[in-house]
Amino acid sequence: MPGPQPRPALVLAVAAEFKAVVVAYGTSQKTDQIYPTEFVIDPTDANFDLTGLSVRTKFDMAHQVQIPFNTDWVSKAPSIMPNTPLPKLGVLPPHYIRVAKAAARKR
What residue numbers bound the domain in which 66 lies? Predict the structure, then answer.
């Protein structure tokens, strides 16, 4: 079941034939406790503004879930980045991709 509140998610894969996406959810909670399968996107990092996030957020690559790509699970993102198609909030800057992959390998 969808959670009680919207939260950012990093899209890791698209299963078009199933109309689903594989995501790792983000949280702004306990960002000072980082485990090997997690990484943090911080407002002080280069290109943070491209992410569309507003606060320090961590993603746990060990907890990936496939969710339906429909309005029950995916909602419109705030209009933070102009010309960004909804529900897309932002993009993962290239230097985070290496960090995300390293965290995923530790799961």
Answer: 9-105
pLDDT at 86: 64
Domain membership flag for residue 43: yes
99: DSSP letter: H
Question: Which one, of 36, 87, 29, lies nearest residue 56 by Cα?
Answer: 29
Total of domains in the chain: 1
pLDDT for the residue numbered 77: 66
Q: Measured on CA atoms in the order 10, 41, 53, 29, is the torsion positive or negative?
A: positive
CA pair distance 93, 51, nearest whole angstrom: 7
β-pairing verdict for 9-15 and 38-41: unpaired
User: Which tens digits make up the pLDDT trace of 85-102?
Assistant: 667 778 899 999 999 999
Has residue 3 been placed in a domain?
no
Residues 6+ apart with CB under 8 A from 72: 2
